[in-house]
Amino acid sequence: MAEAERMVKEMQERSLKPQKDAAVKELDEAQKLLEYVKNNCTKQYDQNQEAAKRIKGLLSDYEAKLKELEEALKQASDTVMQANDQNSLNNKTLNDLLEKIKKLEKERDRVFADIVLAKRQLNDTENLLKMLSDSKKEYEQLAAQLDGAKKDLINKVNSISQAAAKEGLVKEAEDHAATLSRLANDLQEAVRNSSGRTDVQDALAAIDAYKNITDAIKAAEEAAKRAKDAADKALNDVVQGDVTNRAKDLKDEGNRLLKDATNAAKDLKQATDDLTNQQQRLDDAEKKKNALEKELAAINTDLKGVQRDDIGKMIDAAKKTAEAANTSATDTLDQLKAINKEVAKINATPSGSNIDRMLNDVDMTVKNLSSSIPSLLDKIAQVERLSSQIDPNNNISNNINRIKDLIDQARAAANRIAVPMKFIGDGYVELRPPKDLDDLRAYAALSLLLQRPNYNARGDGRRRRRQTNTDNGNLFVLYLGNKDSSKDYLGMALRNNVLYVIYKLNGRSYELETDSITLSGKEPFYFDRVDMHRIYEDVQIKLTKVFTSTNPPNPLIYTRRGEPLLNLLNLDPNEVVFYVGGYPDNFTLPPSLNYPKYRGCIEFSTLNEKFISLYNFKSLTPQNISDREPCKRYVIPRNDYFEGSGYAKVELVNMQSTLMISQWMESKADSAVLLYFTNEASFYCLTIEKGRMVMRGRDGDTILKEEISVGRFDLNGELKVIFQSSDKKIRVRMKSVEVLVFPYTLKKFDSYYIGGIPKDLRERDNITVLPLKGCVHSLSAAGTNPKVLERVGVGRGCYPELLTARKAEFNVGGSLETAPTGFDLSKDMVLSVGFRSTEKNGLLLQNKQDVNELELDMVDGHVMLTFQNNVWKSKKQYQDGEWHYLSVVKTGQNIEFRVDEDDDGEKNTVSPPALTFISNDIVLGKGTFTGCLSNLYMRRPDFDFKAEDLSTFSPYGDVLLDVCSAARPPENMLAGRNQTLNQDGREDAKGDEGSNCFTPTPIPHSFHLAGASSSLSYAVASTTLTNMPYFSLDIKTRSAEGLLFYIPAEQDNYHVALYVSKGRIRFSIGSQREILNRDKYNDGKWHTVTLSLEKRKFRLVIDGLRAKDGELNPREGSSIQLSSAIYLGTPPPSTHKVLKGKRLPEHGVIGCIRSFKMNGSLMAAAAVNRGVGPCFEGQTESGAYFSGHGAYVIVDESFVVGQSFELVFELRPSKQSALLLHVGNQNHLTVFMRREEVVAQVNSGGGEFSVVVQPKQSLCDGVFHRIAGTLCFISRRIFS
């Protein structure tokens, strides 16, 4: 311890300063060294680090640029390869063009040679004309010689003809013609006075104009009838007198006498030949006269309903026809009587004592008859000229159709006369019944106005007492039903001035009481509006009191339900009548309608969304009922309603450099004509087609490229079309949004059309879009309200119920869907719908709600109902193209099913197949139905007592609203071939014995496509196409262009298409998504094509050679949604505009396809076959092949068979019995084979007549046979 302390003390005393100084010095040196290192080493390191970072960044940039350069080089390499490929194609194309140039040069040389030959022929023709001129001079000289002998001939004609006896008849015919001309001029003047009006608010002026029309029509009808009676009388005189047969017999006797006296009177031979020629010409004239009489009868029948502005032309044409027929009949009668009198002179038994006298009489008779030949020849020439004016091909069907069109237009114009008619209890009006009685079976919507006079408010006391005694408020209003009133009908009547609606369906009567009709005592008269809506068995009445006042009250609503299984109004087209205001005295009314005739005014508005007027009457009693002054009333301003059949022509004045056309529209149509501008050389047409705006036009002979809007639009808002001369553009705006821009060539227009186009302009410019159905108002042109020059199918008064779309047309792939709001399958429910189809299979309707499943479909033509694990099948088949209506009724656990009221079906005991549902919505069509559906009624609250509005459904695929063009299938003329065909009691063999016939063997699983006229449509499950299938087929064609098959997609930019272009086969997925093989395959040889779509790649392999794969973007491969329809050949016309927009062929190839497979399996039978038959090996021959399984060709929609009909064709049958030709319906001409006999059968209304020819050799020997014949119709006999 002490040592330690010492050591510590020693340490404390010891000095360490030298060491401290040394340490401080070393510290200073170290600090200096540290500063040196920092200044000379660390700073450089930091600078190096920064330089390294900067260099690293530069290297990264260079590396990125090198990658971009590498990619650019790769793209350049691909571009060079593509350019090389394109150069190869261009080289081949150049070679093709050079070959075509050589061919065209050869063709030019041939044409030049033909031109030289034509010049020679023209020179020969000129020489021939000179010869004809010389011959004409000779004929004139001969005519002068004949004229010199005119006096002698006239004296001889007067001595035998006594034509003056018919001078009165000729004068009467001339008077008739003058009367017709005068009445036609009066009629034209009356029409001219009334046709310029744009509305008919002035009731008195409209009635005065219409009185002139009706008076002129009646007078014209009477005059035409008198002319017809005169012709008929002449014909009856000829027939009753049997002049023709007697003249023929006497002629034969005269020929025999002339033959016996040949040696004594050789100069009579020439006269006898003249007599024979005259008789033949006379027979021909009689035939032409009969044909003209038939034409006159048809025109006379049509004239009874003519009420149109251009009726003057129609009456003038009828006048000319009647005048010609009357003149021809008179002249023919004179000639026949002259022949009768002169031939009677030689009607004696020949004997030796008076043979010389008889020969002298014969000689004189023949000379006298010969003198009348020039006059008869003039009349025959006149008839021939008249026939040539009717139609150059002696086929008057086109002219008859034009006359019918004019009559229909006149009746439509009469239906738009919104003027009341006054009834005073002494008459009635019979209206023409609706044309569409099939629609009336399930649905009837009638709107009319009723007015009742208040006798206490006007007149003296005696008049009031007299009216009160005869009018107690029990009155008849209307009746629409069968002539036999014990059958179905619709009617209205007043009981104590209370309106009752009475109707009868399938033997069960219903009544619906409403309220009293307003009594009005002074002008303006007040009308009550009655709106009746009947849908199947349920009826709703809306009664709006004092509707014609300035502020009418809300309507009163009355309803009545009926029996859901007996719910159709069955009216016979041949027995239906429509009486308003009264009825004929000999007509028996139902007891519930048997009241005195109406007193007051009635005005009709619409029937089933079509205009109807009392002035389009079929008949009226008394005749002056339409002349009475109607009840004046206040006209409520209404919008224009376009009923979907016409147009409005609007005046366009002072077309400026910038012209704006605007109008407000309200419509549910997705396809319609909106605006149309035209002059003599050009046109512009704006339409909406499946919701898209489309603008097309023509500038002179140049067709302008059509423009289609990108999005879809509805027609509820303001439409503007602006013509801008500054930038030569037409701009279309809908609801202030610009939807289209179209080139404008500075054309001038003095008018334009709204909602439709006249027929001649529609045909000239090939406009096929339907007219507009909807409301239009607030027209504006150049800032002013334009004048409406003409209205066709347009009327006043637009109501929401008129815009309902009650029907729809479905094609393969099309469907409609809606949520089942208010439709409960678990409760009591009633469902009714109408359908029409020519196909045997397809789904009509389906819906699934929890465990409840409902499906209606067609299977082999039968209607199948699957509901609550039960299946019902109709007893009949319904693929006949006619309208049929089915109903399903569920009451508790009881389910009933009816088709057309009488087919209650059969309940199957087997378990129903599992149903496939894509959603819980109500689905119509589901992509498999081809045909039409209408009047769907599910008793939902929003549509109770109304048909479902199909425009509120969501459309998918090919569906058209408010149209139905389903065609009826051809009648199976040999459907009863297993029955006895012979009238002599011999029984024909069962079936068609064709074992000895030559039958060509078709290529298995092959289809022959004939271009635009043939196609196959397949319906497959959408899930199958979702899995990206692959297809394969064999193709043989010589077509350089054409579509092979096509699958549309839900997205507009995509599809699957295989087609031929310039001989090369191309595979397209969408816009700029296409691959091809450079070789040409239109060499007429078989080639195997396989194509597939897998994720992002699509491939094409032809004869084992694989084209370069196509690629899709990552999002495209999974987003393409193909539809369930596959088209082989030419797709439906509804897709052609889409194909044209995608630059794909619109029509299929001409050639053969075999072994069409999907996923390695042959495709099932096509849902629709249009003109596709099998293929055969070997050389083809010109002609058409009919498979015998429902194949047919419609040559012409209308055909008139005259008194003679020539038929020539060649055939090579494979069966011994088959239909060859059929014209008409009940009255028909049919040519068919029956066990190798060729039969011509005719029914002209008086029973069937037939001619049978047995060929000398079999027609079934594998070679063509020529069938030729002429059918002549004389006195209901047929000569072959």
UniProtKB/TrEMBL annotation:
Q: Name one GO biological process term.
A: regulation of cell adhesion
Q: Using the UniProt annotation, give all residue ranges assigned to the region (Disordered).
A: 1-22
Which PROSITE patterns has this protein been placed in? LAM_G_DOMAIN
> Any one cellular component term from GO for this entry?
membrane
Q: Which Gene3D superfamilies match?
A: 2.60.120.200
Q: Which GO terms describe its molecular function?
A: signaling receptor binding
Q: Which SMART domains match?
A: LamG
Q: In which domain of life is the source organism classified?
A: Eukaryota
> Which residues does the UniProt record annotate as the domain Laminin G?
806-964, 1005-1175
**What is the name of this protein?**
Laminin G domain-containing protein
Instruction: Identify the species of origin.
Output: Pygocentrus nattereri (Red-bellied piranha)
